[in-house]
Each structure stands twice: as C-alpha cells, then as structure tokens.
Design goal:
This protein is α/β, with parallel strands linked by helices and about 400 residues long. It folds into 2 domains: about 210 residues, Rossmann fold, CATH 3.40.50.2000; about 160 residues, Glycogen Phosphorylase B (Rossmann fold), CATH 3.40.50. It is about 40% helix and about 20% strand. It contains 14 helices and 14 strands. An 8-stranded mixed beta sheet has the order 3-4-2-1-5-6-7-8, sandwiched between helices. A hairpin with a 2-residue loop joins β3 and β4. α3 packs across α4 and α7 packs across α12. The chain is globular, with a radius of gyration of 22 Å.
Length: about 400
C-alpha cells in the first residue's frame, strides 16, 4: 500500500461543492488500495476576521485537508497577485507539514491539475526530493478553448517545467494527451485512465410511461462551452414538428438562457434545476431517456458515462474525444458540433427510434469499464510504471 499525498488544484469545498468532483472520485478509487491524503487550497472572499482558515475531514477512506485564505486588498493588481500567490503556497506548506506530522511521510506526490498546485510540487521536488506524478484534464489546452495559449510566456514555461519534472503523466483521454504533445508540453509518453462513475447512484431504472413524452436531459456549467443556448435553438426547430418532449437542464442557468427558452416557446418543455448535488444529478438523469451533449470542446465528458451508467444513449457533438467513449448506434448518436439544424434532426430521429437502444446493455458496459475498482487497478499500474523510470535530472 502506497502512502500518497494529492496536491489538488481543484476539489469540492465550501466554496464550490461541484468543483473537481471528478478529482474526488479518482481519489476515492485510489484509496481502495492506498493511503490517500488530499491537500486543497482556495481563496475565500467571505473571510473577514482572519487571513487563513483550515479544515479537515475523512470521507470514504480519503483524508482531506483544506485551507482558505483571505483576499488581499490593494489598488495595485501586481501586488494583489503576489500576495495571493504567497498565501496560496503558504497554505499548501502548512497543510503538507500538518499532514506529514499526523500521518507520516508520503511515498510520493500525486499532482492533480498541474496549474497552479504544481508550483508547490516543484518546491517539494527541488527542496525535499519528492517524486510526483501528474493527472491532467483541464480543457483549456483544447484548440476550441485556446485558454493555454492566452497565458503569459512565464506561465506557459512554468507549466512545461511542472510537467518536465514529473515521473509520469496521466490524462483522461487520448485526445488530451495528443494535444499536450502537439503543444510540446510533454513528450510521447502518457497514460490514459478514464474518469470514474459511481454506479451505486448512477444506474438504470424503469421509467413510467409519460404519455409518449420523450424526456431529455443536459448538464451545463459554462453556457458557451456546453453550447446550451444552441440546444434551446435546436429544440425550437423540433417544436415546429413535435411537441411531445421535455428537457431537464442541470447546472447554473443564466437569465439570458431562461429568457431564450421563454421566447422560443419552450416554457412548457424546458425545466431548469440549477446546481444540485451529485445524488440529485443521478436522480434526474435516471428519469430521462437520452442526454443531449452539444459541447464545443471537451477533455473527457464525465456526464457521458454518468448517462450511460443510467442506460441513456447520448446525442453528442462529433469530436475525437467523444468518440473515445461513444459507439454510434450502441450508446449514442453523433451530430456535428455547433450545427443546430443537424441537432434538431437527430433529436427528431431519436424520438422515432428510441427503442433501437438497449438500456441494460449500455449500463452494463459502462459499469464494467468505469467503476471504482477498475479505475483503481489502472492507477496502481500507472504508479508502478511511472516510478520504475529514472527521475528526470535537475537542471
């Protein structure tokens, strides 16, 4: 059993209970066979009377240390950034020191999302001689996002340095790994391990007949990224031919999005649920018959395997990364990304051919591939392969 410390750039907390929930599921899967401690730091705009605040919890064999720091007020942006970075790293150091004192020295570090927790990983590498592996699934490397290219020269250099000093890199899709190679961030060596779906709460149920109404579901966070407004415009086209459908929208919904639904005549067809718990997400998905995933870019698409675990086929953008987990005709239907006319046609086709999809087979395939145990075994192999290599030299 390895003793592992996670340095997590994203993780659920009081600031955002959904932020990095996929990191939490990976930590839980790894904790099936290892001793896992997670460290997470975040700015907290609500802190008033103290500069720092610390929390600890143990949840499903994962020990979680969280630290929050107060925003520094200054009219000088550069000073705010410097103080914020100092407080961020100071929090990580306090958490790491506390974790080591309480639970003992870790065998190695698992850095999850390199920027910006990777700055502390570099410190541990250079000054404490710790080896670390990296997990990456940030979408800003993807061409349609182009977030990485918008960084300063120094930030891009720092991200590359963080990757360079790791002993192994894990991505959640081949597409993301290839992008990292194309951008010269990593060499040709990376390991693909998928995200986890909690099959204890995502599973198929027998839905009661609803007067031939076809119920769809979609999940939105960033409206542009997920193209939620594009889904609504496509449904307006569907409405001109069929009215027997409903769409549940999970996640934050802007006033503009709600107004678009109203102006499109979809008020009786589209239902906004807002941000809900992971358990409630599962409940809403399991009551649907298909998911619509009209995303512009993605590194994996956790919601796809969550829908599949409930037995739902997914009408999804035809992107290379999406093809890694969808086989057309078996567990999904492809549509050209951003083609709203094509999406409307696929939705109409599904409404007439939904019996073509075998709910139980979709769920069974997903349960076997993406459960906690299967992913845990892949991480153990990842660690073995990664730490059998020579550590990169310090330059």
């Amino acid at each position: 059993m390895n003793k592992i410390v996670f340095l997590a750039s994203w993780y659920p907390s009081r600031i955002n209970f959904l932020n990095g929930d996929f990191v939490e599921r990976h930590a839980k899967s790894i904790a099936l066979k290892n001793d896992v401690t997670v460290l997470f730091v975040s700015k907290d705009l609500q802190l008033k009377n103290s500069i720092y605040d610390f929390e600890f919890e143990e949840k499903e064999k994962v020990k979680v240390y969280r630290a929050f720091y107060k925003e520094f007020n200054s009219k000088f942006l550069i000073l705010r950034k410097i103080v914020s970075q100092f407080r961020y790293l100071k929090c990580f150091h306090k958490l790491f020191t506390r974790a080591v004192h309480t639970h003992g020295k870790p065998d190695f570090i698992h850095l999850y999302i390199p920027f910006k927790a990777g700055v502390y990983a570099l410190y541990l590498h250079f000054f404490k001689k710790y080896k670390y592996v990296i997990s990456e699934q940030h979408s800003y490397y993807m061409p349609a996002s182009n977030g990485y290219e918008k960084n300063s020269f120094f930030t891009k250099w720092l991200i590359k340095k963080i990757f360079e000093k790791s002993v192994a890199v894990h991505t959640v899709s081949k597409s993301l790994g290839k992008i990292l190679i194309e951008k010269n961030i990593i060499k040709n060596d990376f390991k693909v391990i998928p995200n986890v779906v909690d099959t204890d709460i995502f599973y198929p149920i027998e839905n009661a007949k609803q007067e031939a109404i076809t119920r769809f579901v979609t999940i939105t966070g960033n409206v542009y990224h997920k193209n939620t407004d594009g889904i609504l415009r496509a449904l307006k086209k569907v409405l001109s031919q069929k009215e027997n459908f409903k769409l549940d929208v999970i996640g934050p919904a802007t006033a503009d999005l709600k107004l678009l639904a109203k102006e499109s005549g979809l008020s009786d067809h589209v239902f906004f649920h807002g941000a809900v718990t992971y358990q409630n997400v599962a409940q809403i998905i399991s009551c649907a018959e298909a998911m619509i995933f009209f995303t512009r870019y993605e590194t994996f698409g956790c919601v796809i395997i969550e829908a599949h675990a409930c037995g739902l086929p997914v009408i999804a953008s035809d992107l290379p990364v999406i093809r890694e987990n969808i086989a057309e005709g078996f567990n999904g239907i492809f549509v050209r990304s951003e083609d709203e006319d094509a999406l409307a046609e696929k939705i109409l086709w599904y409404m007439d051919h939904k019996d073509n999809f075998d709910k139980q087979k979709i769920a069974s395939f997903t349960r076997n591939k993406f459960n906690y145990g299967a992913v845990s075994s892949q991480f153990d192999q990842f660690y073995i392969e990664g730490f059998s290599k020579d550590q990169p030299p310090d330059l």
